[in-house]
Amino acid sequence: MDVIRDFADLVSRGWGDRLGVLFPLAVVGLVGLYVLWLLIGYLRVSQVGLEERRSGGTAVRLPEAPAGALPEAPRGVPYCSFDGLQYPASARFCTSCERDLVLDCANCGATLRAGDASCYRCGTRTGASPAPNG
Predict the structure, then answer these.
(1) Which residues in 1-134 belong to E strands, given as ranges?
(2) Cβ contacts of residue 130 below 8 Å, gap of 6+?
(3) Which one, of 78, 97, 96, lies nearest residue 86 by Cα?
(4) Predicted confidence band at 31 (pLDDT cuts at 50, 70, 90)?
(5) What is the bridge-based pairing of β-strands 111-113 and 102-104?
(6) Cys-Cys link to 78, which of 33, 35, 65, 101 (CB 3.0-4.6 A)?
(7) Rounded CA separation 21/80 (Å)
(8) Vertex 133 angle, CA 105 and 110, to 5°
């Protein structure tokens, strides 16, 4: 019984001191995570913008599909399945929603990330160059 009473005393007393120490640390941690999220988002968008200008292409809307069906992109062409935009071959991220682009394998039709160098199912090269190592 003494252990339970000691535990109850520990929990019920001194919350002001604990909150006085932990609350500012929690706020600093959350603000730090938010700033990191903003920085990563900025860097990702800026890299997409550079890649898009270098390739000379812009995003175009995928052809309209019948009601209830998903729009279909040509095989081997990167597209954003969320926004329904088709991008040039060198693009890796959607400039509207910042999601990774996908493409359908030109050989078997498997859905791949636009940055994958080859198809996981049949091994066909996608034309995407591997990321530089440094």
Answers:
(1) 60-61, 79-80, 85-86, 102-104, 111-113
(2) 117
(3) 78
(4) very high
(5) antiparallel
(6) 101
(7) 46
(8) 10
Q: Name the residue among 119, 58, 63 with its Cα closest to residue 90.
A: 58
H/E stretch holding 134? none
pLDDT tens track for 45-69: 666 554 444 444 576 766 666 666 6
Is the model's pLDDT at 129 over the cut of 80?
no
> Which tokens is 67 given?
């009601």
Q: Please give the structure tokens belonging to residue 84.
A: 């329904």
The Cα 103–Cα 8 span in angstroms is 59
Residue 13 DSSP label: S
120/75 Cα distance (integer angstroms): 15
- Report, as an integer, the average pLDDT of 119-134: 68
Residue 71 has pLDDT above 70, yes or no: no
- b/e per residue, 37-52, with b = 16+ CB within 10 A? eeeeeeeeeeebeebb
